[in-house]
Amino acid sequence: MGLDAFVYCRCWQDGLTPPAPVGPVGFDEEGYLSLVVSGGGYTETDAAFDGWTASACPHELMEQASEHLSNWTGHRLFQQALGAAGWSHFPALQAELPSANGGRMPAEAAVRVLDELDYFEQQAVIDDEVVLVDEATEAVALRYVAAYEGVLMLGPGYRAGVDPEGFFILDPDSDPPATLFRSARFRQRVLPSGQVQFSDEKKSVQIAMSPVGDKGTPPEWLRLEKQHQAPAEFGYIVEPLRRLCRAAVATGNPVMWC
After folding, report:
1. How many whole angstroms separate alpha carbon 258 and alpha carbon 256?
2. Residue 211 or 1, more confident
3. 48, 68, 93, 179 - which has most CB atoms within 10 Å?
4. Is the pTM of the predicted complex or chain greater than 0.70?
């Protein structure tokens, strides 16, 4: 699960494709190329249309560009970094980045986003990030995601995560949610019962939940710290965004979030 996007090519718009075997076809109100009239359910007409889009031009599914941007946590972390650097530098990104699957970004906005991505990579100054690390390896086990109020693990009877005050486990069934455990440095042990024991010098609790970190060999000692982060760390989403925006500018077609 995550955020993907694509940009249609111009082959159909420019008359470079064979006629659709069924039709008429056109862009619907959401921006998708589709049958103007479609019956209920998936019909032979729909199958013929899908076959046409798969083979009518050199672009797979008539897409000039198609990208997986990130899982939703990675997307939220990118938005968090933009906010830390100052949303005033990124008005187009703030307006156009989606908060859920679906929607589109017009090509004229993509022009502005390209400039803002250049600014982010070359000039942005980002605050240090809050992380929970494995003391033995220094590997990051959890990152603070403000959009999720720090919660990154959830299951029956618990919500867990990390925020600027430390690692926490909440009981979501109480009102308000009660804090079962909170610590900036603690030990975790997977017990024979399958529960996980979390302890520090003040408190020890046992909870039926997944351990924090590597599921193969979960870290024993974890601590909260702040780490420097740089724009280059967000290449996983900046580069596919840049490719999508360039395709939108070249075709005049919107970026379709999906």
Report:
1. 6
2. 211
3. 93
4. yes
